[in-house]
Amino acid sequence: MKKSLICAAAALLCIAAVGGGTTIAASAEEVQLSCKAAYLMDETSGVQMYAKNEETRLPIASMCKIMTLLLAFEAVDCGELTYEEEITVSERAAGMGGSQVFLGAGLSYRTDELLKSIAVCSANDSCVAIAERIAGSEGAFCAEMNERAKELGAENTLFANCTGLPKEPQYSCAKDVALMLRALHKYEKYHEYSHIWLEDFVHPDGRTTQMANTNKLIRSYQGCAGGKTGFTNEAGFCLAAAAQRGETQVISVVIGADSSQNRFSAVSSLFDYAFDNFESVTYLRAGDAAERKIAVRGSRVKNMAVTAEHTLSAISRRGTEEAYALGYELAEEARAPISRGDVLGYAILTRDGVEVDRAALLAAEDAPEFTWWEAYREGAQHWHHG
User: Fold this and answer.
1) Which of 21, 68, 291, 346 is deepest in the core (most CB within 10 A)?
2) Per UniProt, where does substrate bind (predicted)?
């Protein structure tokens, strides 16, 4: 799993690091919630839009499974695991209590089916089966969960198991849960699973278990893009969810609501507040050329356009002009050979001087190095004109 942590860090560590110090905060009068803690974040930039006890350490129940899923998808991403691989279920995994799909000990299940059951119906038995496959034991997997949390900047999180079942010491906070869900949302397979409402889980021995999605907002809230519920007597009712309307994408986390309905109402209220009062402004789209070009030495290509690897956008209050600025880390020139897609610099979005997001600037074309004859002619021309 170390390999997957390393290869994921390059893409996700910078996402988690930026935006942490930027805030467009709501006042207490604008949003009133009945819960222990809550957090609202612009998913694209990481800008904080609302916070209530956002760094208070609390039990988060099954929202722990956000990290379980993240590590599993990263393992697939790095080639350590495949969706088609069959995982044999241990007695321990099959014997997990709480929400489950009743896996059979000694039976083998495809990885994608296990992940689907975690995303849809919060299956504890599938979590442990996945953890044991990736790290050898649930304890070793928890160590990797904690390491990954640190890489994401989740400073108030400690995992003791991969399910969220009560166990000391285990805690997180609303802000950290948002960071974890933000990282998970890069995986299309997760989105595919999280939108399933009802589906049968078919066992190798012919049994079926009906899976029902625990996140009711995927049917009741327009634009809900998945999420994870949680409940224990200790944690109360919890929910982390994402929603998108137009280009505005937000993540909302509620911990410790006093009823299932109130957690859904609280997250819906945060979504409503975001979409009613904010809009996403795009500064540079993925694939578009930056304003600046880079000079190329040692090639027939003299000036190279650079394109953004991903879109740079940020959240702004409607009717106001936030202090965002787009700048560049880009050398004046580069030496051939250059291949299309090579990283030549970065476009950086800042707010009030604080970095919000950055996108790699990629070479828009190949710039092959001069042949011997081309280099000779180039030198001769410079000598002649000199």
Assistant:
1) 68
2) 228
What's the helix, strand, coil split of the chain in %, to 5? 35, 30, 35
Q: Any catalytic annotation for residue 65?
A: yes
User: 359 near 310, Cβ under 8 Å?
Assistant: yes
Choosing from 4, 45, 62, 316, the catalytic residue is 62
**Which residue from 325, 326, 286 is spatially nearest to 307, judged by alpha carbons?**
286
Residue 62 annotated to the active site: yes
Residue 9 lies in a domain: no
Q: How many domains does the chain have?
A: 2
> Does the annotation flag 36 for ligand binding?
no
Under 8 Å CB-to-CB from 375, ≥6 apart: which residues? Answer: 298
pLDDT single digits (tens) 285-331: 999 999 999 999 888 888 999 999 999 998 888 887 778 899 999 99
Q: What is the DSSP letter of 299?
A: B
Q: Does some domain include residue 1? A: no
Q: Give yes or no for a contact between 153 and 179, defined as CB atoms under 8 angstroms apart.
A: yes
Please report which residue ranges of 53-110 form alpha helices under DSSP H: 65-77, 91-94
Q: What is the CATH number of the domain that holds 361?
A: 2.60.410.10
Residue 30: domain span: 16-279
Q: How far apart are CA 132 and CA 144, in angstroms?
A: 12
pLDDT in tens, 174-221: 999 999 999 999 999 999 999 999 999 999 999 999 999 999 999 999
Task: Identify the three-state secondary structure at position 80.
Answer: coil
DSSP letter string, 158-220:
B-S-SS--S-SS-BB-HHHHHHHHHHHTT-HHHHHHHT--EEEEEPTTS-EEEEE-S-THHHH
Strand partners, 50: 40
Record the tokens describing residue 139, joined without a space.
Answer: 């304890």
Active-site entry in 90, 99, 117, 122: 122
The answer to whether 217 and 225 are in contact (CB under 8 A) is: no
Instruction: Judge if 92 and 165 occupy the same domain.
Output: yes
